[in-house]
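[step 3/7] inverse_fold.run input=structure_tokens len=238
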């Protein structure tokens, strides 16, 4: 995107990383749709399997968001208020938590045994919190599906609109170090989300999670309010 031309804090090659990542975001659900129609067994047992390529990439995207946040903490620690730095750390830790949860904190990779307390309350017997079931209530459905869905709707469809029109929203986003989605991020979110949601297989959610994580990586890499995360303001602010 042209918006990457005048962002001094992002290396030149990041433009191509953005294009490649965007293309992968569009192709992944499209190919998943094809597999679900032609070879649903391969779709379930290979393409979207636990700790497979899709799930691993989802975790990697969230981890890279964490890295970007920590990079900005180091870069801006003497230039920004403590509140801004603290929330950048907090957002980064949230991304790191999501990356760990996605792969059950490496349980299957390192062949870890599930602790008894999690074995009792985790309906999949895994080392993670999002599969907990307490009092018949699935945490994954309540928090990571319904609540997260509402948060994503506000973040993608309300916040960018309000950011462009209301000064106090811009002030708050700067204070709380919130990266704002650009219009093309929103469009990419819509296109990939609709394609993935149309797949007639239960494990389509793995593809939805991947697309969402990749788009967050793109937003963190180059948000609409990039100047707030840059040492040198862009030409539009000079």
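[step 3/7] decode complete -> sequence:
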């Amino acid at each position: 995107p042209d918006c990457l031309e005048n962002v001094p804090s992002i290396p030149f090659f990041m433009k191509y990383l953005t294009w490649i990542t965007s293309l992968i975001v569009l192709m992944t659900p499209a190919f998943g749709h094809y597999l679900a129609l032609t070879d649903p067994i391969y779709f379930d047992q290979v393409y979207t399997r636990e700790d497979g390529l899709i799930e691993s990439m989802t975790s990697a995207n969230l981890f890279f968001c964490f890295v970007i946040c920590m990079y900005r903490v180091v870069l801006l620690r003497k230039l920004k208020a403590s509140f801004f730095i603290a929330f950048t750390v907090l957002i980064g830790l949230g991304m790191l938590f999501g990356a760990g949860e996605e792969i059950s904190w490496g349980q299957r990779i390192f062949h870890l045994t599930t602790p008894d307390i999690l074995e009792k309350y985790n309906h999949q017997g895994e080392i993670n919190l999002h599969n907990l079931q307490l009092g018949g209530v699935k945490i994954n459905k309540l928090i990571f599906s319904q609540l997260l869905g509402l948060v994503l709707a506000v973040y993608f469809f309300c916040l960018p609109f309000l950011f462009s029109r209301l000064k106090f929203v811009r002030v708050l986003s700067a204070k709380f170090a919130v990266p704002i989605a650009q219009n093309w991020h929103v469009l990419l979110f819509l296109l990939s989300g609709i394609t993935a949601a149309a797949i007639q297989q239960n494990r389509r959610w793995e593809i939805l999670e991947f697309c969402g994580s990749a788009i967050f990586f793109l937003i963190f890499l180059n948000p609409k309010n990039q100047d707030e995360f840059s040492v040198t303001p862009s030409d539009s602010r000079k």
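[step 4/7] annotate
The radius of gyration is 19 Å.
The first strand starts at residue 133 and ends at 134.
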